[in-house]
Amino acid sequence: MQRVLWITGAGSGMGRASALAAAEAGWTVVLSGRRADALRDTVSEIEAAGGTALALPLDVRDGAAVTAARAAVVDRFGRIDGLVLAAGLNSPRRRWDDQEIGVFHDVVATNLGAVASVVDAALPDLRTAGGVVVVVSSYAGWSFSPNAGVAYSASKTALGSLVRTLNAQEAASGVRATHLCPGDVATDFLDQRPNVPDAAARARMLTPEDIARTVRFVLDSPAHVRIDELVVSPVVRA
């Protein structure tokens, strides 16, 4: 049976690594993100390995575009069986004493509002399929992390409640969701920190492939198994 997985934030980092891992496991993968060239490069890599993938550029903050993208996926493949929601945003200016409120709203819109929009758009398809949702959150969404930032901490913490309500209200349809909370991961996202980690610090962190293996574990779990929350950390935390 063809299983169709829609991934946001798929142009780089954990989203890209998850796309490659899911394709290797036999999923048909739809990759969304703002960087069309990066998406096409990943699609080419998947196809070269014998997989099936589609690049669907998208700004997840645009609700109308999300709705149109869901329609495009269903028009092309006829179904959506899973979501991996990995788009994220932060800012170096993230404290009450230096943040800009407009940037605060952008971070919350990307990390929280967009997740709700994509889930809402795909939910009819997930109900039909008894689908699975992996929300890529953060260690800061599981345990308060004072340096993560006002907007980032608030938005990632709220994802835990979003996942819980989805599981509580959609269990009868077989829909199941996971709040995935990675610790430090060596990706370009680190460049958004006030103090950017050096190569030595990054070498001690998780890799995108570590998270992709975790995502694949969730995706490959039987339909009667729900993994409510997973926290994955490097042995040495920064």
Question: What this model shows, in words?
Answer:
- It is built from 7 helices and 7 strands, in the order βαβαβαβαβαβααβ.
- The chain has a 7-stranded parallel beta sheet, with helices on both faces.
- Helix 1 (13-24) packs parallel to helix 2 (36-48) and helix 4 (101-129) packs parallel to helix 5.
- The chain is of the alpha/beta class.
- The chain has helices at residues 13-24, 36-48, 63-77, 101-129, 150-170, 199-203, 208-219, and strands at 4-8, 28-32, 53-55, 82-85, 132-136, 176-182, 229-232.
- It has one domain: NAD(P)-binding Rossmann-like Domain (Rossmann fold).
- The radius of gyration is 17 Å and the shape is globular.
- Keywords: Oxidoreductase.
- It holds the Pfam family adh_short.
- GO terms for molecular function: oxidoreductase activity.
- This is NADP-dependent 3-hydroxy acid dehydrogenase YdfG.
Q: What is the secondary structure topology, with strand pairs?
A:
Layout: E1 4-8, H1 13-24, E2 28-32, H2 36-48, E3 53-55, H3 63-77, E4 82-85, H4 101-129, E5 132-136, H5 150-170, E6 176-182, H6 199-203, H7 208-219, E7 229-232
Parallel strand pairs: 1-2, 1-4, 2-3, 4-5, 5-6, 6-7
Helix pairs in contact: 1-2, 1-7, 3-4, 4-5
Termini Cα gap: 43 Å
Low-confidence stretches: none
The total beta strand count reads: 7
Proportion of beta-strand residues: 5-15%
CATH fold topology: Rossmann fold
- Give the averaged pLDDT, no decimals: 96
Which CATH first-tier class would you pick?
Alpha Beta
- Determine Rg (CA atoms, Å): 17 Å
Shape: globular
